[in-house]
Amino acid sequence: MRKRNEKGAGVKLLHYPPCPQPKKIAGLAKHIDLYFLTVLWQDEVGGLQVCQDGCWISVNLNVFSTVVNIRGIFQVID
């Protein structure tokens, strides 16, 4: 779903359904979320990593945790 107003502000909602055969999938390529705010819901599969000082580090979360990433705002402030 994508919603945008006349001033350029917008919201984009994505839903990725569970993979029917997760053991056969290696995962997504390394990427950076370019949005101001990213909300991730952690399921039992896991796999979230963050890049710190050029190294990718696995994030250990409880099942059904929620991650809120506001990375973009910190780059502007920094």
Determine the N-to-C terminus distance. Answer: 31 Å
Percent helix, as a range, is under 10%
Cα radius of gyration in angstroms: 15 Å
Number of H- or I-type helical stretches: 1
Class based on secondary structure composition and strand pairing: mainly beta
InterPro entries: IPNS-like_FE2OG_OXY, IPNS-like_sf, Iron_ascorbate_oxido_reductase
Domain Isopenicillin N synthase-like Fe(2+) 2OG dioxygenase: 13-77
Protein name: Isopenicillin N synthase-like Fe(2+) 2OG dioxygenase domain-containing protein
Pfam families: 2OG-FeII_Oxy
Write structural notes for this entry:
- Residues 13-77 form the Isopenicillin N synthase-like Fe(2+) 2OG dioxygenase domain.
- It comes from Ceratopteris richardii (Triangle waterfern).
- This protein has 78 residues and is mainly β.
- The chain has a domain at 38-78.
- It is 9% helix and 28% strand.
- It is built from one helix and six strands.
- The chain is globular, with a radius of gyration of 15 Å.
List keywords for this structure.
mainly beta, 78 residues, Iron_ascorbate_oxido_reductase, 6 strands, two-stranded antiparallel sheet
